[in-house]
Amino acid sequence: MEYYQQEIALPPFKRGFHLITPIIEKNFRALQKLEIGMLNIFIKHTSASLTINENADPTVRMDFESHFNHMVPENAPYYRHTFEGPDDMPAHLKAAILGNSLHIPLSRGKMNLGTWQGIYLCEHRDYGGPRRIVLTAYGKTN
Amino acid sequence: MEYYQQEIALPPFKRGFHLITPIIEKNFRALQKLEIGMLNIFIKHTSASLTINENADPTVRMDFESHFNHMVPENAPYYRHTFEGPDDMPAHLKAAILGNSLHIPLSRGKMNLGTWQGIYLCEHRDYGGPRRIVLTAYGKTN
Amino acid sequence: MEYYQQEIALPPFKRGFHLITPIIEKNFRALQKLEIGMLNIFIKHTSASLTINENADPTVRMDFESHFNHMVPENAPYYRHTFEGPDDMPAHLKAAILGNSLHIPLSRGKMNLGTWQGIYLCEHRDYGGPRRIVLTAYGKTN
Questions:
Q1: Which residues of chain A register pLDDT less than 70?
Q2: Which residues of B touch A57 (CB under 8 A)?
Q3: Across all residues in chain B, what is the average pLDDT?
Q4: What confidence tens digit (pLDDT) does each residue in C59-77 have?
Q5: Which pLDDT band, with edges at 50, 70 and 90, does B14 fall under?
Q6: In this predicted model, what pLDDT tens digit does every residue of C96-134 receive, in sequence order?
Q7: Segment A97-108, tens digit of pLDDT
Q8: Is B60 close to C89, i.e. CB distance below 8 A?
């Protein structure tokens, strides 16, 4: 049994949905040692989030941005938290809807994702800057 | 301490929200060995999802289908990813909103769910076919 | 390696979004023993939920309540599950959208949250009463 943990800063991404699966794999080699286990990815922010979705056609990620802007609009008349800019309160809401952590099963030293699954960083601010994530992997070593 | 993992295919479900708690319990007996621990259920798809909600009145599950169809409509004018059919892009969005994995505490060899909680498979495609899930249970054995 | 588990009842909260980070820290001292690990918080209800978001300005939490009431309205014409009151079906939907469990990395005996992150109890019923949560912490002891 083993626990591995590492905190990394992602490069800044522009507002939108971005595939980061290779960044996780490259930066967290420890997960290769786990025969059976889990990987947790936790983002330490309240206006960016993480989700898993289609890793192929980039229009899926564009439609995510369009739909979330529609479902959680800027400048809604009922917002009171407005002093950090029109993109701030929607960013908090989007982050809560999508969630700030993922759990992925590990099997034979790899993330056991479906063929079409990729990890998305969801940047909800116009200028979010670099985002910090905590990677924790644990399980039975091989 | 122990880790157990098993991948299973669910039978195909029609579009909508379906209770699958008994399928999990029947197929993954290993969790009975855990005195304290966690169960992770991970769906390896991007157009079906998992959630926990009311396990009694079937109208709750019907209202989930109605509300998600309203909140994430087919044929929204801003969708660009349309070539896999009108139910495809909404399915990706619904899956991200609801989430693709669940974590349930294990206590004395059982899922420690509330009285009214059941596990839902959320099938967002018209014809999604059989869905694969990875079950991982870990903790202190009894 | 160690697993700790504890079930507690939260005090009743009024409908809305409430910071409960200090309640978790005070009631679950066991997590201080973990050098590297994870904390799971699981709510055993289907009309209240948990999320992580901004811990400073209270208007953020007010805007959460406003936006979720807008996105998941009471008395939608398509609801069939209406006999438990107008706040009941929206509460189930909100709970599924936000999620009923959180996973937070533990580092050197503390939750490794970002500076602005706090744990929210999201009470979606008008009179939800006390809510039960299961706390499970596990990892490498120090």
A1: none
A2: 81
A3: 97
A4: 999 999 999 999 999 999 9
A5: very high
A6: 999 999 999 999 999 999 999 999 999 999 999 999 999
A7: 999 999 999 999
A8: yes
CA distance linking residue A95 with residue A90, whole number of Å: 8
Contact (CB<8Å) B112/C4: no
Number of alpha carbons in the 13 Å side-chain half-sphere of residue C2? 15
CA distance B8 to B44: 11
Residues in chain C: 142
| Cβ C86 vs Cβ C13: under 8 Å | no
Cα–Cα dist A95/B131, whole Å:
27
CB contacts, 8 Å: B89 with chain A: 60, 63
Nearest-Cα distance to chain C for B56, in Å, is 11
Q: Minimal Cα–Cα distance from A92 to chain C, Å?
A: 7
Q: What confidence tier does B118 reach under pLDDT thresholds 50, 70, 90?
A: very high
Helix (H) or strand (E) holding A64: helix A58-71
Q: Is B109 left (phi over 0), alpha (psi -120 to 50) or beta?
A: left
What's the confidence (pLDDT) of residue B4?
Answer: 98
Enumerate chain C positions whose Cβ falls within 8 A of a Cβ in B. Answer: 1, 3-5, 7, 40, 42-46, 71-72, 76, 78-81, 89, 92-93, 95-97, 99-101, 103, 132, 134, 136, 138
C-alpha–C-alpha distance, residues B99 and C49, integer Å: 14
How far, in Å, CA of C52 to CA of A7, rounded?
19
